[in-house]
Write a structure and sequence with these properties.
This protein is mostly helical and 468 residues long. The chain is built from 18 helices and 5 strands. The protein has a 3-stranded antiparallel sheet, with helices on one face. It has a two-stranded antiparallel ribbon with strand order 4-5. The longest helix is centred in the last third of the chain and has 33 residues. The protein is extended and about 135 Å long. InterPro entries: DNA_brk_join_enz, Integrase-like_cat_sf, KIAA1958, ZMYM2-like_C.
């Protein structure tokens, strides 16, 4: 049994080769041949060092512990101390008992379904009768996990609040003053206003996909040309977005997204300004006093791991204490903000790229501030203590009642003046005149006479039947 379970060694060699190439994108062929030739000269040396156990691989402590548990289970199985069933059960619980969520089990089945479909398997695990027992076992296991408190999505991402954004700007993790903050701001703007997903779509975006344009009135905006996405793979030429996502400028604001783009265009290397160049570039680790002297970014794209954890790293550095802030939080913030502002779902999916209106309803969740307001309202009722929300509502009621009273008094005064103006300039002589003024703008109540009483008479009809 070998301890190599991933291709991390090859990835490490590839990263080292990339560093020796100075991170250049579009490396000329003669430079690539020279680098590979130098690597080939070291192969024999590496083989000898590994055979003499002088060159060892670096492995993290977490993976060493997992390897140790796997080896212990395998050795016990070889010594006939554990059966095959016990070996498989031990491997399944190697991360601890019951670590899986009900949705994870459903994801396993879906992965098997995709794999079998790709291999042209003749049956479906999800639909066909041959796998009915599998579906029943899955349903039973999901119910059992739910009874144990699983299935509440404890790791689901949450939306970014306005307070979080303010803290990130205050701690200079967002803005245009530092290279890292500039990269973070670009990522956040592209996620929330272009609707880019996770990591892959950010990784695939190129410099030429975002164009700076102006409206007929001179307002600047950025327009995004979409590439292959999760819902639009390109096999259907008619399946395209009805509109190109746009990001408009904010006049007189230092947080303007168009201004951020212009600063990034100025700071990125001129060699990386062609259309097929990667949009996000790796940050140069330079000191603050060298910002005006050295370039902010390298001539190489940002790594996948960096893009995949950019929101999580921002949250940890700002000490927001929100482990559920992830890359998907940016997209969730966009959707929840538009839903709360009562933007029609048919308009939202044109920006987000969804194909189903039901997907919009999944983002209509209550925010933390709304939960606080509801909780304090209910606490004020159950405890008898007025909360700040309750007092404000009472003040609003009193203000409305006062406005209604003032309106009634004003209308009655106007009614009296209009009634008296009827006799303005008139000459009346002799007789008694009685005038009644309706000051409440209501119809007068007239005396009603009692209703007359009617008596009913029965009509007797003669029957032609002989039996009567």
């Amino acid at each position: 049994m070998l301890s190599v379970r991933t291709n991390n060694d090859i990835e490490g060699w590839h990263h080292a080769l990339n560093r020796r190439a100075a991170g250049r994108c579009g490396l000329p062929f003669y430079l690539l041949v020279s680098l590979l030739h130098n690597e080939a000269r070291l192969v024999s040396l590496h083989i000898r060092l590994v055979s003499e156990r002088k060159l060892k691989r670096i492995q993290r402590a977490v993976y060493r512990q997992l390897q140790r548990r796997l080896f212990e289970l395998w050795e016990a199985f070889n010594k006939r101390e554990k059966s095959l069933k016990q070996l498989l059960k031990g491997c399944a619980n190697i991360n601890g008992p019951e670590k899986y969520e009900p949705s994870s089990l459903r994801g396993f089945i879906a992965s098997f379904e995709r794999y079998l479909k790709k291999k042209n398997y003749g049956h479906s695990i999800i639909k066909d009768l041959q796998f009915e027992k599998t579906r029943k076992a899955l349903s039973s296991k999901q119910k059992d996990l739910k009874r144990k408190g699983k299935g509440n999505k404890p790791n689901a991402s949450v939306a970014i609040s306005e307070d979080d954004i303010q803290v990130l700007y205050e701690k200079k993790l967002l803005g245009t003053e530092r290279p890292e903050a500039l990269l973070n701001t670009l990522w956040l703007n592209n996620t929330t206003q272009f609707g880019l997903r996770g990591c892959k779509e950010h990784r695939d975006i190129c410099w030429g996909d975002v164009k700076l344009k102006k409206t007929s009135t001179g307002v600047e905006f950025l327009e995004y040309g979409e590439r292959q996405t999760k819902t639009r793979l390109g096999d259907d030429t008619n399946d395209v977005r009805p509109i190109a996502p746009k990001m408009f400028s904010l006049p007189n604001s230092d947080r303007c997204p168009v201004l951020t783009y212009k600063v990034f265009a100025e700071k990125r290397p001129t060699q990386m300004n062609f259309d097929e160049a990667p949009f996000y570039l790796a940050v140069n680790n330079i000191k603050t006093d060298s910002f005006d002297k050295k370039p902010w970014f390298k001539q190489s794209p940002v790594g996948v791991n960096k893009l995949n954890s950019i929101m999580k790293v921002m949250s940890e550095k700002a000490e927001l204490n929100k482990p559920r802030l992830k890359n998907h939080s940016g997209r969730k913030t966009m959707m929840q903000t538009l839903v709360n502002e009562e933007i029609p779902p048919t308009d939202i999916i044109q920006l987000s790229g969804h194909r189903n209106l039901q997907s919009v309803n999944n983002y209509a969740t209550v925010s933390e501030k709304q939960q606080m307001k509801m909780s304090r309202t209910l606490s004020a009722f159950t405890t008898g203590i007025e909360s700040s929300c309750g007092s404000s509502s009472e003040n609003n009621k009193m203000l409305v009642s006062q406005q209604r009273t003032e309106h009634t008094v004003t209308s009655s005064t106007c009614g009296q003046q209009q009634a008296l103006q009827i006799f303005a300039g008139a000459t009346i002589s002799g007789g008694n005149i009685h005038v009644s003024i309706n000051t409440l703008n209501k119809s007068p109540i007239l005396p009603t006479s009692p209703k007359p009483k009617y008596q009913r008479y029965k009509r007797l009809l003669s029957s032609d039947s002989e039996s009567d």
